[in-house]
Design brief:
By secondary structure, this protein is an alpha+beta fold. It is built from nine helices and 17 strands.
Length: 393
Amino acid sequence: MNTYTVQFYDLLTRALGDSSSKRLQGFLDNVMAQKYNALQLDGFTFDEMQLDFAYEQIQREVSITPMSNYYDLDSPAIPRSTEGYKSWTGKIPRMKDVEYLNEDKIRKQLLLEERIAKIGADRVQRGALNELFITTDNLIGGHTNSLTYQRHQMVSKGEFAITYANNPKGIAGLTFSAHVPSGNITTLPADSTRWWTNASHITTYEGAASDPVKDMTDMVLNANDKGVSNVHFEIQKNYFKQILNHSKVLKAIAMNMFPTADVTNTQSAVSVMTYDVKKAALESIVGCPIKVIDSMVSVEAPVKATKSFTKVNKQAFEGDVVVLVPDGNIGRVLTVEPITVPGGITANFYGGRLLMTVEVDPVRKCQGFHTEMTSLVVPEVPQYMWYLYPNNV
């Protein structure tokens, strides 16, 4: 009678031929580097790793050099002032995840191997490699989506909040602010000027005096007046599609593309034009590019009644907001360097920022794949990020 134990079934040995940190690291470098789940950190760069958990957010100035002053011939010049800066401090939160190859999974895998071994031994290894890929892909993908979510929340909301809704299995009640000045946040005050007065976002509920094109153009002009000339809008994909169908937007595009034609007829023609044509026309009118954000993340939430988990999909970038940000680098990703203990099977990803540790528990008869990453997306130019809330609904 065969007795299957954890020592007999090791996923790393089955898949890679060797249960070692070197083989696991090679697998992550060669296989997971090709993964489709790309990290979205536009405008943010990884900073050098640090040992402590403290972070400091420093506000960079993107300012124009002041002109020289004019004096009497014998008068001394007044020294230039030292440009000040603002800073805020806090603690970087840690992300953790784990996936177990438990006894039930091991037995099922062994039963599968008994069947496919009759076809060929190479099929056994391919099956183990597939299981290892799924396991590591889920874990690394989770951290990837978490960082992407941080980035999009910082830009679309001006803050990243850890709540029960987005972190139901862990801590809640922490908010990391981008510290956007209140003067950079505008909410259209009256129904008449709001782009829509109802959450359905259809023509029937457009504000009578609404003018999305003027509102967006004014944001660009304001940024230019502040000395920030290279900017772009960031708008959530579904919301942007609704903006393109706003009657005032269609009218503006029609007048721009067909200045001598009848506006009513050309507006109807524009409404059936392709998405790309309308987007390009609007960008030309408002005076800067529009980056459309399409990013969905998933949260695994517990269901007490059934003692199970359900996945809830969320948009990483908020809707119903138009954000104007500078081009280029707007912040950093701060990371606490992970610590490893000799003797364990470990590997890393994202330049050592994400640590994977594999351990075996002979009592629970399982092999655990643990990951951790202590990173936070921190904006550096919040004073040059502008927000417009056109609906207030």
